[in-house]
Each structure stands twice: as structure tokens, then as C-alpha cells.
Design a protein that fits this description.
The complex is a heterodimer.
Chain A lengths: L4 E5 L9 E8 L2 E9 L6 H4 L8 H5 L7 H15 L6 H32 L7 H4 L1 H22 L8 E2 L2 E2 L5 H26 L11 E6 L10 E4 L4 E2 L28 E2 L2 H8 L5 H9 L12 H24 L15 E9 L2 E9 L5 E7 L1 H22 L4 H14 L4 H5 L1
Parallel strand pairs in A: 6-9
Antiparallel strand pairs in A: 1-2, 2-3, 4-5, 6-7, 7-8, 10-11, 11-12
Helix pairs in contact in A: 3-4, 4-6, 4-10, 4-12, 6-7, 7-10, 8-10, 9-10, 11-12
Chain B lengths: L1 E2 L2 E2 L3 E7 L5 H6 L6 H7 E6 L12 E5 L5 H13 L2 E5 L1 H5 L11 H9 L20 E3 L6 H12 L11 H7 L24 H4 L16 H10 L4 H9 L5 H7 L1
Parallel strand pairs in B: 3-4, 3-5, 5-6, 6-7
Antiparallel strand pairs in B: 1-2
The chains are: A alpha+beta, B alpha/beta.
């Protein structure tokens, strides 16, 4: 059947920020498939110039309202490496716990409130309050747990206050940490219920060979720092992040695009899983296996499942970390430091993938040059080329315009894009 | 929804974002413990970040972000025309926020730094009230959900809504925190509007003034405090300029 149609989605819903999808079909053939980011830029790399190193993480935090802890810690890592500041071990562990909190907030936000409606055919999660109350309740409990871990470790869940250069300005009390440990244990049932629910959803069958980029630290599942690796076998030092990004500009987007060995690459939970599945605890591994998720998985819709697998990993890692912190002296969590000139990169795994901040300081500790490369920036090209391949597959399968549109928006949401962050 | 036996109508709300991080809107979905009750107060008619349903019959518009491009001006005016109550939601909307740091340099320089010569449309960051009339301001980076809840309850019950007039110091003292000035750090708590529960100084970091000036502040006395303690004037200026809430006082400085 020869068909003509155009899918023009202006300001896609249920994603962070402003992005457009354009699909054009003529005589039953795909004429065009494009992903465009139309967010207004905020020019963070320009406005951070001249700012004191001390204040800089508070500014870069504002790049993103969802992953502000990741941005804060990427800047702190870059500046501490640049100025040779060594934070106490207790502070390093508290920061790590803050990262787990942010992921445990962000993944449920995406899975329940942004992604799940696609699989259940509702315009938002609001109707699910009535149709699936126990699932929404589980989602809220998990998201609430993530926010509480973030608040206890960094003073506030969005735009942290106590993550500072040199360490932590105010450490949590042992009572707060012990309370978190209990709450994590109490939330396991909600996560298990969630996992059973997601197992009932149908993940679209689509594969496009992709190069997946993530951190790979010396040990453990990736979070703060480590080697930069790809599933195509590329390995780089953290400071050589430019070789792992190769940013370029396109005509239609205010966000940049990146690539490594192929025309595009992907970052995020699926990328972390594909590069580090051997680092998962047995429970998370079992959950992955129960969904048929194994490395290297090239189905981008499985990023949703990878996020769920990571929730299991995070709950276990957070508990182990709290046990270590409970045995430590938490009175002195901040090192004094002196400003100096230097340059370094801080790479962290934000919920949506690998995030780089490169910072250069002068003798007074003022930032003279900054570069921030965001996970969604690294996914833009992959989303673009995936849309093309997915639309072609949909046409081959004889799908209607409405079906094709639904597949395309579900695909983009599976990446959990953070668009204003990508433009920054 | 019933209150003391009286039936209360939900208010129709639209939530919109301009140049920002969307962190203020995210607070609407935070504080999970009271989220079902909060959602019981409002009828979400338009909220792109969480729902594909978009209706234009909202009465209250929550507007997050500052304005930095011409298409945003048109979109904002259309929202103003529809809304009975337009709320500047968060520090970017109320004061221009951190985006306003860009206003210190020529726009071409910012474009060159980030886009390497590509043609990109942008203009100096403007607060919402530079473009349209604002009925209510809820400052904060991000907004405090407690305060948003309190204001929304006020709107639903048709009672008066207002922000604290006193400075952050009042809330900080109530928490028995050690004053950051006594620890050798400049904190904007003495001159910044309260309502945040002094979250930053409680975390032992300086208030950067995201909620803008408290009412009737004594700025010369604040400057004197900084000078008396032999603290850095450039540090004070960096803090005052961070969110653009103290523009009048900074201008007076220079």
C-alpha cells in the first residue's frame, strides 16, 4: 500500500526540555526522520568563566533540575583534580551515597511517570492513580526513598547544598544513616512489586547496532570517575574525554551531537549495563536475566529495563555503603585547600549516562575555561538515527501512521532525554 | 474535595517552562508523602513535562524560567492572555536567575564561547515581569514545595497568600545553627527573604540569595558587617550577583 504522511511532534511531552520529532513518508517510503532539539541555550560554559572554584559547583548544579547532584559532583571532581585537593574518605563515601540517591529518584521518575504511560496507553501517570494504585504507590515510595537519600547526604534533593569543594560541609548523623538503611530494606518489596509489573509490559522488538559508552572504574559498578570505555573496544583516560565525544553542530538543533567509532553512540543505563554487567550483584543479575537482558543489548527500548536492573543494584550498593559509613568517624568531612592553577576532567555517571565537566583554573582558583558534555548530548545522534531505522522498520511491517508515531515517541522517551541539560 | 464539610473546587493549573533547568516544576512531583493530597487540590490541564494531555482552559499558570529568545515572548503573552493568575515560579522567573550572569558579557561573546560562531538566537535574560504582568511570585532555586503547598491551599480556600517579609536569619536562628559569619563566611541570610527554612546555612553553606531581598533590609549595615569582619568584598559581590535578585544593591555598589 502506498501511503503519504507526516509526523510533526513539536515540543514532545513527558520528557525534560523541548525537542521535536519529524517523520516524513512519501509513496510508502521513508523520506525523512529527524530529531531536533529546540531548547533555548543558557551558555553555562560562558557564564562560569571568572567564577570562583568554590562557587562553581553551585552554578553548574543549575544545568539540570533532575540530575543536579551529578553536575555538582562532576564539577567538584574536575576542580579537585585540577587543584590537587584531596577530600577525606568519609566525604567521598557520602558523595557516592548522594549519587545513589539521585539515581534512585531519577529512574523511578522516568519509569513510572514518563515511560510507563506509553506502555499502558494513557496520556500521563495521573490516570494510573486510579487504575494501578499499588504500582503508583510503589513508584512514589522508591522515588521518595531516592529523594530522602539525596536530602540526608546533600542537604536538599534538588540543587544540593552541602556537597562542596574539599568534602562535605555538613555530614549526616549516624541516626539519619541508620534510618535510611531501614527505609531501603523496607522499600525492597515495592521494588520487587514494580519489577513484576514491568515484566508484564511488552518491550518493542527493535535492534540497531550501537556503540555504547560508559565509565568503567577499577572496581564496582560505575558512578564517579574511571576509564572511559565503549562496547566497540575503545578505552580512554578520563582526561581524554574529547576523544570519546567529538562534538559537532547540526543545523536544526541547539544541542550539539557526538560520535566515536560510528555515526552515533549511546550513553545511559543500558550503556552502563552493556559495559559493566559483570560488576552487578547477583540479585540485579537475576533481574536482568528475567527480562532477557544480556550484554551487549542493542535494543534502545531496553534502557527502561536497564534502569530497573540498576535500581536493584543501587539499593544493595547503598546499603553496603551505609554499613561502611556507620563504622567511620564522620566528624571531619571537609579538607582545607588553597587555590591554584590547573586543568582536569571530572566524569560521572549521571542517571542518563556519562557526564563530563572539564575545568581550568588560574592561580586564584577562578575558572578560566569550562566544558560540559551532557549525556543527552551524547544520545542525540543515536536518537536521530534510531528514529530513521525504527520508522523504516514500521513501514516494512505495514504499521499505520498512529502506530508509527507511538513507536517513535516511546523510543525517544526510552532514552529518558534531559533536553534543557543537553543544551545548557 | 471537602474541607470541614464544605465542598472546595479544584483549581485548573497549567505549568510552563522557559529558559531554565525545570527543577522547580520537578518539585511539583516531589515531597512524595503528600503528593496524592497535593494532586487532590489541583486539576492539571497543561503540564508538558509529565502529561501528553494539553488543554488551554487553565486558570492558574505556573511559569518557570527566564526569557532569552523572541519565540518565548510570544508564548508567554499567550499564557498571560489565558491565565487568571500568572505565577512567576522560581528564581529564574522572578529575578532572571543564574541565566542573568550572561547579561554581564556581550551576547556575541557568549555565543562564540559555546557555539564557535554558529548563528544562534539569544538575548539578555529577562525576568517574567519584564514582559507581562505577574500576579504572584514564588521565588526559590528551586521553589520550596512546602511553600508551594501552602500557597496552593490558600488559593483553593480563597484565603490570603503571602511570602515571609523577614530574612532567612530568622529561620536559621530557629534551627539553632551556628552563624556562618562566626565561621568566617559571608552569608546573604541577613538580607534575603525567608521561606526556605534556611536550607543552605543549615547545610553549613552560605545563603546566595535565591529568594531575593527581604522587606526593608538594611543593606549598608550588611556591608558594614562584611567590612568589620574583614571578609572579601569580591566574594560578597559574587554572591549578590549569583541569582540577580540584588541588582539594585549591586548597582549602588559599583
Amino acid at each position: 500500500m502506498k501511503v503519504d504522511f507526516d509526523i510533526d511532534l513539536h515540543h514532545l511531552t513527558r520528557v525534560e526540555g523541548h525537542g521535536n520529532i519529524h517523520i516524513s513518508v512519501r509513496d510508502g517510503r521513508l523520506a525523512e526522520a529527524a530529531w531536533a532539539v529546540v531548547e533555548t541555550p543558557r551558555f553555562f560554559e560562558a557564564i562560569v568563566k571568572g567564577m570562583s572554584a568554590e562557587r562553581t559547583p553551585f552554578l553548574t548544579s543549575r544545568i539540570c533540575g533532575i540530575c543536579s547532584i551529578s553536575h555538582t559532583l562532576a564539577s567538584i571532581r574536575a576542580l579537585e583534580r585540577a587543584m590537587e585537593i584531596e577530600a577525606p574518605e568519609s566525604a567521598i563515601l557520602i558523595r557516592q551515597l548522594a549519587m545513589y540517591g539521585e539515581h534512585l529518584q531519577s529512574h523511578p521518575l522516568h519509569l513510572f511517570f514518563l515511560a510507563a504511560p506509553d506502555f499502558l496507553g494513557t496520556p500521563s501517570a495521573l490516570p494510573l492513580l486510579h487504575t494501578h494504585p499499588e504500582i503508583v504507590q510503589a513508584g512514589l515510595q522508591l522515588k521518595g526513598l531516592g529523594n530522602e537519600i539525596s536530602s540526608v547526604t546533600s542537604g536538599r534533593c534538588t540543587h544540593p547544598v552541602s556537597l562542596v569543594l574539599g568534602g562535605i560541609s555538613k555530614a549526616p548523623s549516624k541516626e539519619q544513616l541508620a534510618d535510611l538503611r531501614t527505609k531501603i530494606a523496607d522499600s525492597q518489596a515495592a521494588l520487587d512489586r514494580t519489577t513484576d509489573f514491568f515484566r508484564t509490559l511488552t518491550i518493542p522488538d527493535f535492534v540497531r547496532e550501537t556503540e555504547f559508552i560508559s565509565l568503567r572504574p577499577a572496581e564496582g559498578y560505575p558512578s564517579i570517575g574511571g576509564d572511559l570505555v565503549s562496547t566497540d573496544g575503545v578505552v580512554h583516560d578520563e582526561n581524554d574525554y574529547l576523544l570519546m565525544t567529538n562534538e559537532y553542530l547540526t543545523d536544526s538543533s541547539t544541542s550539539k551531537f557526538t560520535k566515536v567509532s560510528r555515526e552515533s553512540s549511546a550513553a545511559g543505563a543500558l550503556a552502563r549495563f552493556n559495559n559493566n554487567a559483570d560488576r552487578l550483584h547477583s540479585r540485579a543479575r537475576e533481574v536482568a536475566a528475567s527480562f532477557g537482558l544480556e550484554p551487549v543489548c542493542h535494543n534502545p527500548f531496553m534502557n527502561n529495563v536497564a534502569q530497573l536492573v540498576e535500581c536493584h543494584q543501587l539499593m544493595e550498593d547503598a546499603t553496603l555503603l551505609i554499613d561502611r559509613l556507620l563504622d567511620m568517624d564522620l566528624r571531619d568531612t571537609r579538607a582545607t585547600w588553597k587555590p591554584r592553577a590547573g586543568k582536569a576532567t571530572g566524569a560521572v555517571e549521571a542517571p542518563r549516562g556519562i557526564l563530563y565537566h572539564c575545568m581550568e583554573t588560574d592561580d586564584d582558583g577562578k575558572v578560566v575555561k569550562a566544558d560540559c558534555i551532557i549525556p543527552t548530548t551524547q544520545n542525540n545522534a543515536n536518537i536521530h538515527f534510531d528514529l530513521h531505522a525504527l520508522a523504516e522498520q514500521a513501514l516494512r511491517e505495514g504499521r499505520t501512521e498512529a502506530e508509527t508515531e507511538k513507536l517513535c515517541v516511546t523510543l525517544v522517551r526510552s532514552y529518558d532525554p534531559c533536553i534543557s541539560c543537553s543544551v545548557h | 474535595m471537602n474541607h470541614l464539610g464544605f465542598k472546595l473546587d479544584k483549581v485548573k493549573v497549567g505549568s510552563f517552562d522557559f529558559t531554565c533547568c525545570e527543577g522547580c516544576q520537578l518539585q511539583l512531583a516531589n515531597k512524595e508523602s503528600t503528593l496524592p493530597e497535593f494532586l487532590g487540590l489541583i486539576d492539571i490541564r497543561n503540564f508538558r513535562e509529565i502529561s501528553s494531555e494539553r488543554h488551554d482552559d487553565y486558570d492558574i499558570a505556573l511559569v518557570e524560567g527566564s526569557i532569552t529568545r523572541s519565540d518565548e515572548i510570544e508564548r508567554l503573552k499567550a499564557i498571560r492572555a489565558q491565565a487568571k493568575v500568572l505565577v512567576a515560579f522560581g528564581t529564574c522567573a522572578c529575578f532572571g536567575g543564574v541565566n542573568s550572569l550572561k547579561n554581564r558579557i556581550p551576547q556575541e561573546e557568549a555565543i562564540r564561547e559555546v557555539y564557535d560562531g554558529k548563528k544562534i538566537e539569544t538575548m539578555p535574560s529577562m525576568k517574567i515581569s519584564d514582559i507581562v504582568e505577574v500576579d504572584l511570585s514564588i521565588p526559590g532555586c528551586p521553589v520550596s514545595k512546602d511553600e508551594v503547598e501552602r500557597i496552593m491551599v490558600g488559593i483553593v480556600t480563597r484565603s490570603a497568600v503571602s511570602l515571609p517579609k523577614y530574612p532567612v536569619c530568622v529561620e536559621c536562628k530557629q534551627k539553632l545553627n551556628t552563624c556562618l559569619f562566626d565561621l568566617g563566611e559571608i552569608c546573604l541570610g541577613p538580607i534575603t527573604r525567608a521561606g526556605c527554612d534556611a536550607v543552605c546555612p543549615t547545610g553549613k553553606t552560605a545563603c546566595l540569595g535565591c529568594r531575593g531581598p527581604a522587606e526593608d533590609i538594611n543593606f549598608p549595615s550588611f556591608e558594614e558587617l562584611v567590612l568589620d569582619r574583614k571578609l572579601s568584598i569580591s566574594d560578597m559581590k559574587e554572591k549578590l550577583g549569583f541569582y540577580n535578585g540584588f541588582g539594585d544593591y549591586l548597582d549602588h555598589e559599583s
